[in-house]
Design a protein that fits this description.
Elements (H helix, E strand, L loop, with lengths): L2 H6 L3 E8 L3 E7 L3 E8 L2 E8 L3 E8 L8 E7 L2 E4 L3 E4 L2 E7 L5 H19 L19 E6 L8 H15 L3 E6 L5 H8 L7 E6 L1 H12 L4 H4 L4 E5 L5 H11 L7 H11 L2 E10 L4 E4 L3 E4 H8 L9 H12 L4 E9 L37 H4 L26 E6 L2 E6 L5 E3 L32 E13 L3 E3 L2 E2 L11 E7 L4 H9 L6 H4 L4 E13 L7 E3 L2 E3 L4 E13 L6
Parallel strand pairs: 10-11, 10-12, 12-13
Antiparallel strand pairs: 1-2, 1-9, 2-3, 3-4, 5-6, 6-9, 7-8, 14-15, 14-28, 16-21, 16-26, 17-21, 17-25, 18-19, 19-20, 21-24, 22-23, 24-25, 25-28, 26-27
Helix pairs in contact: 3-8, 4-5, 7-8, 9-10
């Protein structure tokens, strides 16, 4: 039997009474949909409910007013176009009364069989007609739900008591809710919890609590299995980048019109997909990151806009306006190991649901027309490498080759030898600091030496003035900020996104407006660099200027480095594995 045939084969078919209309309907179940057909003199229509939109179904007992002893109630949330609001998930319920038998118990058995098969199918499995009778109801999932009542506008508990609880109930998911009391509380709890008692962890908060949970899982003795615990996110913060990235990966929606409902739909479906985890190192600690690092404008807006937290996501708009009006330059050095085997998707349009039009074997092709993309080959003719060999400037910059008159400059990682115009760097620090304790990583993906040691061969280094440097590895950095359309959650790629200080305030404003649909990558023109890499080292030379963040959380303003790993977290997502 072909795939198309199995999708249309009738698995179950019965007469039901559609409540509250009390119209008799012929209902058919296939591996793809539930079909409700009403054929009466003045009431003829067919309704199709896709199994991809169903989160659960219940068997409910009727009473003397309903007309039937037992009902099958189906909960679905199809995406539909709404004027001026894009795609919206609408809640639709259908209550179907059992009328096949006069025997009450027999009608209940019929309803339970329908429920078992529907729940089996929406879990991602398929059955043949001969297998229907052997299908048994799946055990209900059990989740821990961590709620941060202080995140965002302080509405996380309101979310939990509203759509979170109601949709978990519709999906028949059992859960235990725990309110976090202080920063780091979730990390402490997840390090000690018996994960074998639970099917996953739900976080009702912002991205910061996800960062806590992931690092808590990685600090467990059983971290290799613990990190595979499925994690679901309900966006209770201000940025909500992971929630937006999950929705984008599942549906292609650049900006969700109802991100809480969309996120709960993803969780209620109960599947998961892999999300790559990056390892980061600072002077005195090693930790893990799932979203991005930020230095410069973006980090400043994230932290400085905390004073506008009561405005919700509008806080970032206000913060951006303030920072554009008082624009800073950030002087530092970014070094990176180019990713020479990336499937180079075009960055100026949606790519999650399209095949790449560029060859995997030609990674030096431009990722966006007229965009200043720096690759290994280009840097070999533009900037210094990690060993201090000097090169000519990028053709788009003024001047020919760099001034070779050297002067000593004290950097935050040690001593550096640099030109007068701060463009060529040579490491001269020979001290050997104490090694930091690093969590185990597959040696084949150990791209970095200790933070204080010289970089290996094959790296490229650039010192300049920037507006921001932002290594990104998810599609979104906020609910309505599509930072890297090409990024896929499971890919081991860091997209090094740099905006040079040569950008004007007017052009910067255009770049910021372009974040909603991803057009910021082309709006920035020659001022933008997007570099796929395996690892990076960021060294700020302006210790008094700006902030640094990881996954939206403030970290010390000091050198750091990050690298791709083989580590994969499991994120609950409607399109993924069982």
């Amino acid at each position: 039997m072909t795939g198309d045939d199995s999708n249309t084969t009738t698995l179950l078919s019965s007469l039901f009474v559609l409540y509250p209309k009390k119209a008799t309907a012929q209902v058919t179940l296939t591996n793809k949909e539930v079909i409700i057909q009403i054929d009466q003199d003045k009431n003829k229509y067919t309704e199709t409910i896709s199994l991809d939109d169903i989160i659960g179904c219940h068997v409910l007992e009727g009473n003397h007013t309903t007309g039937c002893d037992w009902y099958l109630c189906i909960f679905s949330y199809p995406l539909k176009k709404k004027l001026f609001k894009g795609m919206i998930r609408h809640r639709i319920t259908r209550s179907l009364g059992i009328v096949l038998s006069k025997d009450r118990n027999n009608n209940k058995e019929i309803a339970e069989k329908w429920k078992s098969v529907i729940k089996y199918l929406i879990s991602g499995k398929s059955v043949t007609k001969s297998e229907v009778e052997s299908v048994v109801e799946l055990s209900p999932r059990r989740y821990i739900v961590y709620v941060n009542p202080f995140s965002g506008q302080g509405k996380a508990m309101e979310m939990y008591n509203g759509p979170v609880r109601s949709m978990l109930a519709e999906a028949e998911v059992k859960h235990k809710m725990i309110k976090t009391k202080y920063a780091g509380h979730a990390k402490e709890m997840v390090k000690e919890v018996n994960l074998s008692d639970w099917d996953g962890i739900i976080i009702v908060s912002g991205d910061g609590l996800v960062h806590e949970v992931i690092n808590g899982l990685m600090e467990r003795r059983d971290w290799k299995t613990a990190i595979k615990t499925p994690i679901g996110i309900v966006p209770g913060g201000s940025g909500n980048a992971l929630a937006a990235s999950v929705i984008y990966a599942s549906t292609g929606q650049e900006v969700s019109s109802n991100i809480v409902r969309d996120s709960m739909f993803e969780i209620s479906r109960g599947r998961w997909r892999e999300m790559s985890i990056m390892q980061a190192e600072m002077r005195d600690r090693t930790f893990y990151s799932f979203l991005n690092f930020g230095w410069g404008f973006v980090a400043d807006v994230d932290i400085e806009s905390e004073k506008y937290r009561n405005l919700g996501k509008a806080r970032f708009t206000v913060g951006c306006a303030v920072r554009v009006a008082n624009l800073r330059k950030y002087h530092g050095m970014i070094s990176y190991l180019p990713h020479d085997d990336v499937d180079m998707f075009s960055l100026n349009h949606k790519t999650q649901h399209q095949n790449s039009s560029l060859s995997v074997n030609n990674p030096v092709k431009s990722m966006v027309p007229d965009l200043a993309i720096t690759t290994t080959a280009q840097h070999n003719s533009n900037y210094s490498n990690a060993n201090g060999t000097s090169f000519c400037k990028e053709s788009g910059d003024t001047g020919a080759c760099m001034n070779r008159n050297k002067s000593k400059q004290r950097g935050l990682c040690g001593n550096y030898e640099t030109t007068d115009d701060a463009a060529i760097i040579k490491h001269t620090d020979s001290t050997t600091p104490k090694k930091l304790e690093v969590k185990p990583v597959n040696p084949s993906h150990k791209h970095l030496e200790s933070l204080h040691e010289p970089l290996p061969e094959g790296w490229v280094s650039l010192e300049d003035n920037f507006v921001w440097i932002m290594p990104v590895y998810l599609s979104h950095i906020g609910h309505d900020m599509l930072a890297m359309p090409a990024s896929k959650m499971e890919d081991k790629v860091i997209y090094l996104y740099c905006l040079k200080s040569t950008v004007s305030k007017m052009k910067l404003a255009q770049v910021l407006l372009g974040f909603e649909d991803g057009s910021h990558l082309t709006e920035g023109g020659q001022h933008v660099m997007v570099i796929p890499c395996k690892a990076f080292r960021l060294e700020p030379f302006c210790s008094h200027t700006g902030y640094m963040t990881v996954d939206g959380e403030l970290i010390p303003h000091e050198p750091l480095q990050g690298q791709c790993t083989d580590l994969k977290a499991h994120v609950i997502c409607s399109v993924g594995h069982l």
